[in-house]
User: Fold these one by one.
Assistant:
Number 1:
Amino acid sequence: MKANNPLIVVRDLSIAFAGAKAVDGLSFTVAAGEVTALVGESGSGKTVSGLSIAGLAPPEARITGRVTLAGADILGRTPRERRLAGHPAVSMVFQDPQAALNPVLTIGEQIVEAVRADGRTGARAAAARALELLDLVRIPEPGRRFSEYPHRLSGGMRQRVVIALALAASPVALVADEPTTALDVTIQAQILQLLIRLKDELGMALLLITHDLGVVAEAADRVLLMRDGRLLEDRGVRDFFDGPRHPYGRALLAARPGRRTRRGPRPRLADTSAPCLIGGEGSGAC
Amino acid sequence: MTLFAFMLRRTLAAAPMVVLMIVVNFLLLKAVPGDLVDVMAGESGIATVEQMADLRARFGLDRSALDQFQAYLSQLLRFDLGFSFRYSRPIADLVLERLPATALLVTVAVLAAVAVGVAAGVLAGRRPGGRFDRTVSVLSSLIFAMPSFWIGLVGIVLFAVHLRWLPIGGYATVGAPGAGWPHAVDVAAHLVLPAATLGLGYAALYARVTRAAVIETSRLDFVRTARAKGISETRVTLRHILRNALLPVVTLSGLKLGSMLGGAVVVETVFSWPGLGRLAFEAVADRDVNLLLSLFLCNSLLVIVMGILVDVSYAALDLRIEVTS
């Protein structure tokens, strides 16, 4: 994928909490139509970077630097301030869909509220748009889900609702913070594919925050590797997996499960014989 | 399970508790030294021992405690609250006559306390450590520290005696029209001080609980989701934070409403408010056991009913809680 005009430009972003620096001089760009993976371990500053790009950093965070979206300075502005200033939206997909939805409002009420946040859409048009969004994120029977409460939905369905909420503002970019971490393995691939498909269909930029190198290999066009609030690598995904320049990147790749270790291949689960648990030996249960 | 079935079930489950309360109330009052005859004899000052024995026989006070309890139970089974020899009237009449004044006082006090307490709690919880939060915190501590009879007396001295804004006590001005708008305004003026006195402590409590719940809820992820939608902070607070923070407040208000009659005893006495609380206070002083038993029973039933209503309102506030067994 060619590096077209950058949509989001982050320059020298620093974020501090009560004197402690969480992010230190972070600079990168995100291009429209691309999946940029922001990779790092817990505490590397990747989530709070994503939050501040989406305008959702906690108020006690001290943020300096510059973030522009299509040329407009958006750093330090809340989603509401950005909307009122006429900037295009950067939406966020959250890590834990269970916690990200209000338990006492129906799915429909929550999406309609997001749609109507523009102050122009009427109730009926907003409901129609909400159903459209539920359909867009491939929720079966959107009409029925519309009036249900979050606790009645599975984890995967809830994450689809969170994505629908993010799409309500017609964003030009999505920041997805560990969007698959809280989900079952079987659902993870579906949600990842949904995000990539939506990015293609809607022409958005996707900033994918993750610590899962499998997800990176599957989805990303570019890899940003962070540690201790600093950017260590900014490479194309193939370059990165072929051989990271930074020692930390190399160590990270070597630590992935399924790699050869010095003592030979790791034992595979399928090769080990399961202990006989039912009925004891000779019972024929094994 | 339907709402009706749920309420029926809860009511049946409360039955053993009601029986237990009847027994405990009876034993408690029989353990109090002195009886109505002692009080009446003391007041008249000229009663002989024979006259007192005669009165006790007429009131049934000479029978054994067990006999008296049996008589009381058989009365209750006939939905008869009994007879007050002090007032020479059926107790049901007395209670029904006094109930409206207390219901008015308690309802107004609770509504005002919830409105003031929740509003103060939300504003304080939105900016913990801010100027408003600290003010509410100091005020509520002060209110907790002041007994309600004292707050009432200070209110009377300040607003009724010095400033002359409000009447000193009573339910309505004697000799004023007993109906229509002038009467309603008159009663409302009489209601302000007692309702404020009764509600103030509860308002302070609700402010504290609401503040804590708002701070707790503000940290939850869905509040960030709401903010991400680009809606106003007011809407985030009211629709997302408050709605979820209200559960503990409802629990507390419901349970406290049941116990407000206890507070009403003090307030009604201070303000000469002609309600059940003052009736209870006088019944204690008069050793009018029959009347007290009925008042205790009414109060116990009120607490149980409020408990059931709190459970039902949970389901209305939070759909995850369903009214099932």
Number 2:
Amino acid sequence: MTVFYHFGRYLLFLRSMFTKPEKLSVYTQRLFTEMVAIGIGSLPIVILISIFQGAVTTVQTAYQLVTPMIPKTTIGIIVSDSTMLELAPTITSLVLAGKVGSHIASEIGTMRINEEIDALEVMGINTAAFLGLPKILAGLLMVPILVIISIFLSEVGGIAAGHFSGALTADEFIQGARSTFKLFTLQFSLIKAFTFGFIITSVSCFHGYYTQGGAIEVGESSTKAVVYSSIMILVADYILADLLLK
Amino acid sequence: MIELKDVHKSFQGREVLRGISTVFEAGKINLVIGASGHGKSVLMRSMVGLIDVDKGNILYDNRILDFKDYEQTREIRRDIGMLFQGSALFNSSTVQENVEFPLKMFTNMTKEERIERVNFCLKHVNLENVNSKFPAEISGGMKKRVGIARAIALDIKYLFCDEPNSGLDPITSRVIDNLIRDITEEFNITTIINTHDMKTVFDIGDNIIFIYKGDKWWEGTRNDVKTSHNKELQDFLNASYIV
């Protein structure tokens, strides 16, 4: 029953955001600030994990495909497709759930325990919308962009690892990647990124917003934000795969 | 003027407010006193709309504060300024940004006009040259004064102060009390203060309400407090070592 209670509260929290903004220019300014925080702020970690993700996948795929019966371009096919279908959107989002999610929950949670949210509320501001909406919109816009960057850098990492390990040349990798490329694979990846971006930001805002207590509870909210975002990402990952890849 | 009509509030079956009715007049300093845990904070949070009451009405110049009527509640709240116990300043914003925030949100002032208004408000609370400082860089008393400046940045009609002197030394407490009194008189606002500080009661209180076990136990002026025969009120005063 507790699950339904919290899920209901989460839906009500989302619904309470959709009111007329008190001042659009302030919301727009906040949106850009959040886009920088989520997008630019997460770029270094996304660059790092993407390059290594592509490199490791290439080396491991090459290790498994030892038979000369299979052309080396197959490595490019596997790495490219698995990057777009799963690794880039899901791994990037799970990392972002840790980085962005915990940041959002602790930021809003601290504002809650310091009565800053009450102060906003007393001013007549819709606090759920003011604090949550810019973050959620920024997540919806920036996570897909980060995933596109991740896909590109994973391919670069894969090509580099193939070249340095002697598993396959850059030409073989690219030839393989291009041979089975379907636009839908990329679209599917972006649909996932869009969904995961919403999950990370909305779940984290929810946990931060309903923080009660002190410093320990802020930490708990932050942990819950990461854990529940990650679980919801994995569940959504399966549902989307099941719905869209049949 | 703020009017409370039979206000009730319970938490998990425990009645915290038991039908409080009173009137807080404009241009006066109304003090709500009482021991901790007797419902003062719940009453104040109910009055500013942070807690929805179970029964009864809260009227702001005949406008009902009703959670179901979101727009009306929003309109009323724009006439409210509140000084929180912990100041509740935005910690990652400077003093300038804190005071400027309501102006940015609810007015169409230009940047220059906003700066002028911020400086006017800060001057009113005897703070100057602190605009670029962050809350962590100023003292507790200064934080309270910034909180007051932020509360009066818009032309408010009602000022709520939750324990404005808590954690302050006696001298700074008197400074804050005097500021609240001056602002109330100058802007003719309805001021409501939750306090334990009996010096505040005798210095600036126009109308005093004593809350006991969630009930309005006694009401009168500061002169009446000393001569009241209400046992619980006298016990409270004696415990404060003032009378």
Number 3:
Amino acid sequence: MSEVQRRKYSQEEKTAIFDGEFMPHIDSMYNFAFRLTFDEDDAKDLVQDTYMKAFRFINSFEKGTNAKAWLFRILKNSFINEYRKKSKQPTKVDYQEVETFYNSDDVDYQSTSDLRAESVKDMLGDEISNALNALAVDFRTVIILADLEGFTYEEMAKILDIPIGTVRSRLHRARNLLKEQLKGYAQSMGYNTNEEEED
Amino acid sequence: MEINDQSGDERKLACSDVTKCFQLLESILDGEMGETGQELMKEKLAKCQPCFEHFHLEQAIRDVLKTKCTKQAVPTELARSIRQMIQESK
């Protein structure tokens, strides 16, 4: 990364950037924050903090570049540095643990899942949301960024401070874990996940 | 030579390189491969049943995540309180 260029925006410019480039993302920011914290107040605080930081460091934001990715990066860092530590319930799987446990290029691409596309399509929003929420935060995060927010691998690599290859493999693992969750729902709903047709 | 099953549409029933193919399909679905990806994908899906099934499952998962995940309504006062905090910090 090149060193941050010193530039000074005037008050008017700051306000214009803040209103024109930052505030339009409040919806996505709040939803991301809520999916990380599962708590309305925490999500609100997290978004507020993020916007405060964004304003304070606005001179290091280059006008016209990807504001959404820039904001998401701040939010994710605030979450890791402050909220995650504060949180009463320790995260089920810790970042490092996840990495050591899964960190290998031998990602399992065998199609072990007998989940069917048709059963997935029939699922309800709540089932999908619950399945997503059941994932450990690092896996949940990549799915939110990729599928809900439409970030590219490159943008995700910047937001999460990880190499693109890690983005790809973590996303793959995350979706596999999600499939396992969905398979559970499919089976409990009596959807056909395997061979036999039952009516 | 591999077994040549006559499943209606001449697709191979086993994929010879699942890892490479699935990884490629997933990248294409994630929009990482541009135009060339579309061509490659068409080719794969026409020829290989496991790739075909994997593609459709992966696509379904992305679609439901995109369209069905419940969205949290942003508290109405949030934007206002942010602006106020900024105003006070100036």
Number 4:
Amino acid sequence: MSPADTLRFATRAALGYPQRTALMMLAMSIGVAAVVMLTALGDGARRFVVEEFSALGANLLIVLPGRTGTGGVNPGSFVSSTPRDLTTDDAAALLRVPQVKRVAPLAMGSAEISFGGRLREVMVLGTSADYVDIRGFGVARGQFLPREDFRRASAVAVIGETIRAELFGNQNAIGRMIRLGDRRLRVIGAMGPAGRGLGMNSDELVLVPVATAQAMFDTNSLFRIMIETRDRESLLPAQREVEKLLGARRQGELDFTVITQDAVLGTFDRILGALTLGVAGIAAISLAVAGILVMNVMLVAVTQRTGEIGLLKALGASRRAIRFAFLAEAALLSLAGALAGFILGHAGAWAIRLAFPALPAWPPDWAVSAALGTALATGLLFGVMPARRAAALDPVQALTKR
Amino acid sequence: MAQIELEGIERIFRLGDSEVHALNDVSLRIEAGEYVAVMGPSGSGKSTLLNLLGLLDRPNSGHYRLEGRDVTTLSADEQAAVRSARIGFVFQSFHLVPRLTAAENVALPLMLAGVPAAERGVRVERALKDFGLESRAHHRPDELSGGQRQRVAIARATIMRPAMLLADEPTGNLDRATGQEVTALLEALNAAGTTLIVVTHDPAMGARARRRLLMEDGAIRQDVRNTPAAAPNPP
């Protein structure tokens, strides 16, 4: 029997039982669609985070208090053992590093904001004028924090879009005095709707000068220092310079950590990549289930068509021909199901993109080819047993069975 | 050299603890072109004999020489090749593939033998015409009458031009008139030179055969030859 005839015969056989074929295809397509959609979702989340970080600015250094690496003994170790805080003086000193373009010290805490009898709890971020440029936020009304010495605690605040809407509604917020914690501050600006912003959504923030925040929370320390370098190439030299400078400022003790944007990005990329892989693995279970279904359907087909198999043998079909005919049928069912699932999955991913425009939910190529490959492989693998059973049937018994 | 030579054939089936001798020391010679009716009560071993002759079954002992070649020792696939080239089967229940059209059913043996599609078409068309089925070529078995179905089955059995035709109760599922048509068709093929071996319960059909084998308990009790002239005319 020629391959073309085997294929034609298998196609006729598959089409001869439309309901069975449809159900089989449905099972297989759900498996493939699940892989395509879930990996689209997972990969979409990964891309979303990556893009989010890229939007932050590619040449970003972040200084954290405390040490993450393990080092040897240095002179500083004998002076003190507790990590020293990062201070606004550190931040100011960093401006002297030649590769550094902008510096924003960050101090965070939560406080109660009130205006006109309305109260709510808000996150307060103490920072400086450059923060808005580093993060790429936009100011909708008024102005951002004034450019001034980091130590100066001006009584001004810039409020996020949600806070503005909740406290002021349609009134003009600029120039109004609000109470934040135990201080009275003048609102000098309102942020535009930031939409998305990783971790810190500017919509719900109140931004004040860093010294104001420090005074409010009664602390000298900084939560982070954000540094923007002049360009991407100066990122690594800047990292070395920053470490050298801060190290010198604390007598050689490196109780702080300077990380690059790329390191953070790489971590997220790995975590979310692993997540996508895990989700794909879970979805692949449904493919295995579909494969077992192919086997079940093909076993039923062998039982159903016992008489036909006996006849084919009587007409001179070799075991090989019968095996290939049934294997081809299993492969066709799997392939058709996989293609249907592929289309279904892409439709699903498209629906996700429609529902969540922010999420670039495109299934990764590897997942799509893996899903199609797995579908075909499981179909063939689970088709082998029924095909062998068909080929091994005793023709006399097969012919007498109705 | 006879076309078919059976020598001391034994076929034993095991049913639980007991053994059933379906064929017991059967020896038989059938020449090319013979018309043989195998008769006997149920369970006498007629069908087992036919299955053995058609290489669908293997004897437990004894030898089967087909056209001088010992076929009992062939592998399953070698036997399949012999069936494909030399043997045609006609069944009581027709055994047509329900999802295939008449033409596709007739083409099955050619397809299995790997005959190219273009040549298949020509041969199938000719066969359907020979059996008066050209208008039914694209009908499926459930759209055909019993007689038409058996004609399709016979067309399929003869499309490879086999040396012998094995028929197991070919008229068993047909009414009398249609049965006679089918019998006539088989006899015409026999007249053209094909060996015809028919298992039948129908004494009328048995009487028409030139040779009758009467089986009982797995053995051939009678082997009667009629001269064609002595065959009684059908009522």
